[in-house]
Amino acid sequence: MVHKTKFWVILFSCVFLLGLGAFLLVRSLGGAGTVTARIWLHGEIIEEIDLSTVVTPREFDITTELGTNRVRVEHGSIAVVSADCPDQVCVRQGAISGGLVPIACVPHELVIDIISEDEA
Amino acid sequence: MKPARRIALTAALAAVALTIFVAESQIPPVVPIPGVKLGLANIVTLVSMVVLGRREALAVLAVRLVLGSVFSGGFSGFMFSVAGGVFAYIVMAALVGLFPEKLLWVVSVFAALAHNLGQLLVALFVTGTPGIMYYMFILAASGVVTGVFTGIASMLLIRAVRRSGLSNR
Fold first, then answer.
1. CA A103 centroid distance within chain
2. B3-164: which CATH architecture?
């Protein structure tokens, strides 16, 4: 069995589809209600912002010795709009408004995730 | 193979690995997801292992990791390269004898998955944020794709090296 090409093609196809499906699922999870963004720097939460109370969009910089990220907060969503890192992955991830998958700027050790709680 | 030829071929493959590694680091990421990369340098690790042996492949990897961090990245990049490269190497070394050569791409997929796991663990360590582990799903999916790609590339390169006669005189 392990020497059959077909076995591996099917197995890896399943891994690919399950991985992709699980990723899309965890990205979309999370209830309505209060949406709180948590900004992590070097593994510590430096700021929590209740996104449901944000009325006017605002931007601010997070600067460390590793570099600077400009964060934009809007009603219900948060995004990194610019960064002085070479790969720009965190910027291209766009805004998040829920889900379990955080925005990660690994070179700057910056992570932004969202916790949402249903209002009972 | 004569020892001198063996050393020369190992050195040549190390140069190829370093070139590919530096070239890939200059390509902007295609997918806006942290950690999703082709991992082209793993091609050379696998080719070295099949054509020359595990010891030579380890030498090629070590040269690429050390000199690669000089040319790009710095210390943070070095930790990611080491974790990815060493995890992939261990998996390759363990599996390469267990599969016939026409299934070398399977070894490559397992190596790519190990590579991504190693890098994700470093990312977890560096950022200290548990939520980063949710990336493992997409990194498993991307590891399959990049592993198949680098695996097929490795098989073609192995055939080309053998045909050239570089490895058997």
1. 3
2. Orthogonal Bundle (1.10)
